[in-house]
């Protein structure tokens, strides 16, 4: 099983980035997919998730209207389009998978984790 996150980088405030997370080794379409982030000195934070069955999407309040999660089950990939980026969005972004919907902080509940990709928003 592998989750490979990519697409991070340095972007100016107000800019955009698109993160990707390529999955392999499990039945991707059956899993909820998540994006989390962890800023320096802060706890890991749930950002967004998308169901495998009906593409229902959910967002933490701080990114609503700016971030969009999507998935392509044919490519076994989940995306996070991030627009209007702010300095507070600076963090390492992780993708994760769970067979059932869960948005808590028991990290062991999530079945698979990616390695993270750094997003830095700075002028």
Helical proportion, percent range: under 10%
Tell me the number of helical segments per DSSP (H or I, 4 or more residues long). 0
The secondary-structure class comes to mainly beta
Order of helices and strands: EEEEEEEEEEE
Query: What's the count of strands?
Result: 11
Quick one: biggest sheet?
7 strands, mixed
Output mean pLDDT: 96
Rounded Rg: 13 Å
**Unreliable segments of 5+ consecutive residues:** none
Outline type: globular
Terminal CA distance reads 37 Å
Q: Provide the β-strand percentage band.
A: over 45%
Concise summary:
By secondary structure, the protein is mainly β. It contains no helices and eleven strands.
Keywords:
123 residues, mainly beta, 11 strands
Written overview of the protein:
- The protein has 123 residues and is an all-beta fold.
- Helix content is 0%, strand content 48%.
- The chain is built from no helices and eleven strands.
- The strands form two sheets. Strands 2, 4, 5, 6, 9, 10 and 11 form a seven-stranded mixed beta sheet that branches. Strands 1-3-8-7 form a four-stranded antiparallel beta sheet, with no helix packed on it.
- A hairpin with a 6-residue loop joins strand 4 and strand 5 (45-50).
- It is globular and about 40 Å long.
- The N and C termini lie far apart (37 Å).
Topology, pairings included?
Blueprint: E1 2-6, E2 9-11, E3 17-24, E4 32-38, E5 45-50, E6 57-59, E7 67-72, E8 77-82, E9 91-98, E10 112-113, E11 117-121
Parallel strand pairs: 2-11
Antiparallel strand pairs: 1-3, 3-8, 4-5, 4-9, 5-6, 7-8, 9-10, 9-11
């Amino acid at each position: 099983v592998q989750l490979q996150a990519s697409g991070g980088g340095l972007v100016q405030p107000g800019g955009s980035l698109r993160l990707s997370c390529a999955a392999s080794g499990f039945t991707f379409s059956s899993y909820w997919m998540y994006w989390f982030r962890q800023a320096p000195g802060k706890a890991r934070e749930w950002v967004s998730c998308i169901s495998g069955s009906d593409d229902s999407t959910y967002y933490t309040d701080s990114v609503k209207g700016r971030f969009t999660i999507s998935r392509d089950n044919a490519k076994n990939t989940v995306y996070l389009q991030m627009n209007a980026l702010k300095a507070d969005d600076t963090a390492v972004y992780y993708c994760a998978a769970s067979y059932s919907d869960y948005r808590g902080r028991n990290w062991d509940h999530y079945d698979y984790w990616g390695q993270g990709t750094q997003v830095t928003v700075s002028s």
